[in-house]
Design a protein that fits this description.
The complex is a heterodimer of chains A (329) and B (256).
Chain A (H helix, E strand, L loop, with lengths): L4 H19 L7 H10 L3 H36 L11 H15 L8 H21 L5 H24 L4 H11 L8 H19 L2 H7 L3 H6 L4 H23 L5 H9 L7 H26 L7 H24 L1
Helix pairs in contact in A: 1-3, 1-13, 2-3, 3-8, 3-11, 3-12, 3-13, 4-5, 4-6, 4-7, 4-11, 5-6, 5-11, 8-11, 9-13, 12-13
Chain B lengths: L1 E10 L2 E11 L4 E5 L6 H8 L6 E6 L2 E2 L5 H7 E4 L11 H6 L14 H13 L15 H14 L4 E5 L7 H16 L3 E5 L3 H7 L2 E6 L2 E6 L1 H4 L2 H7 L2 E8 L2 E9 L3
Parallel strand pairs in B: 3-8, 3-9, 6-7, 7-8
Antiparallel strand pairs in B: 1-2, 1-4, 4-5, 9-10, 11-12
The chains are: A mainly alpha (329), B alpha/beta (256).
Chain lengths: 329, 256
Amino acid sequence: MNPRFAPIVLALATAALFMASLAFGAAPVGLARGIAALITGDDPVAAVIMREIRIPRALLGLGIGFSLGLCGAALQGFLRNPLAEPGLIGVSGAASFGAVVVFYSGIAGAFALAVPAGALAGAAFAVLFLLALSFGRASPMTLILAGVAVTSLSGALTALALNLSPNPFAAYEVIFWLLGSLKDRSMTDVAVALPLMAAGCVIVVLTGRALDALSLGEDAASTLGIDLRRVSLLLVVGVALAVGAGTAVSGAIGFVGLVVPHLLRPFTDRRPSTLLLASGFGGATLLLAADIAVRFIVPDRELNVGVVTALIGAPFFLWLVIRSRRELT
Amino acid sequence: MLNAQSVTVSLSDREIVHDVSLAIAAGEVVALLGPNGAGKSTLMRALAGIIPFAGTLSVDGRPTATMRAGERARAIAYLPQDHVVHWPISIANLVLLGRLPHQRFGQAVSAADRQAALTAMRMMQIEGLADRPATEVSGGELARALAARAIAQDTPVIIADEPAAGLDPAHQIRLMSAFRSLAAEGKAVLLSIHDIELAARWSDRVVMMSDGRIVADGAPGEAISAALLARVYGIKARIGHDECGLTLTPLGLSED
């Protein structure tokens, strides 16, 4: 296959799955009826189902999947490590903890956007920390280590919040949210998250040339006119916006950003820049497909999509480890 | 073309290069010699703009301190010592990376870019490898591809850190004659090298470094002497001159 076709094929797959996501659900409303209801307004039940349930869900699946795939590819290129993923710089962990604080403190019920707002605040803290750190000349390795520190601190604080939870229901609510889901999100969630994700994705795409140059190592890249500090700044801010906003409305959805760039690399010319868009559409394809699948796997007790992506992702990760070990020996 | 004045480089608070001044004219190939740890790579990385230094550096009369990163990349090309390629990109795409400083953001690869890359690949005789993944070619082939990448950058100054290391004699000669012909086009070339005979045969001038200082600078036949080699490398060597240039036979260590 011509490597140029990969993003086009995946964009078409994304479009098809987006429509499929609008077509399937608990209520027997097909795509034609739903769209007709939105246009004519003759079928208020179908129109509400589309507007309140399916459109937000499909839009978030598209936006979050795209962000995760794109950011995963960008971070793998930047760190020159095929095992990098968007959660690596600590933004997802910090965003999750921000949401947990909101649940725990009881602010969650106070206003509709309390949880996303808390998660965004958490992501912002993580970014400020990373930026303060990279204000000196931070190497990619420093960035990874700082991300690991942020992630484990957020994890520990989340566990502490669960430990001190006033009642089991609060703890259950937190755990359920942490599993990651696109179900029951409103257009308000979409309005908050989608512009931030779009801005983040644009910023990340700007680093494409620099990522290509980094294939030759940092020294060669900097003599090709690449400002490494500017690149890491753009990536931290872009990934934080895209992934932080996604985590804020959906909870943590793992492994999409790790698996997708890996699966798609062989179908591109392997330059980090060409992988970016392909991986974005690939992420959207995977998340939309998983989110449609969860509606059917256990119909009366819908699985969280984060559980499904982790179930696909973890064995794949293991396979990567085993294969890379074989290559080393 | 390249003019460095009083360059001092420190790495983690330790001064590695002390007050080095070096000028290279257009059309000149200068070989940087010296034992391991003499500060050759550090000096080259500083001149290439990778690590900060005290002192002044100008290319064609323009101070590099006032240049933007892209401008600097169109003035000085740098070929690192280690042969790193992180992804299995094709050799053609690898060489095209040298054209990045000449491309505007979002601009496709131009015909001029392709031509420059092709010329560089022909010089290094790797045009047959164009579609091969860079991670699957031999060490020598990769070294030539990376050299072609630096040549494709088409800058007035080329700085190459041990470009001949790992090449067989034929490709060493081909590489050195490529640098000669680039100099003939009016470029200034600075390269570090361990093979003193190779350096003497192919360069206009040799610069010997020891402990972060320049200890000799001149035409190969004049600058390189048995006394200098004993002082800098601690070796006894017989130096001769024949129709091809300078010959060097190491006899043993000085203290023996």
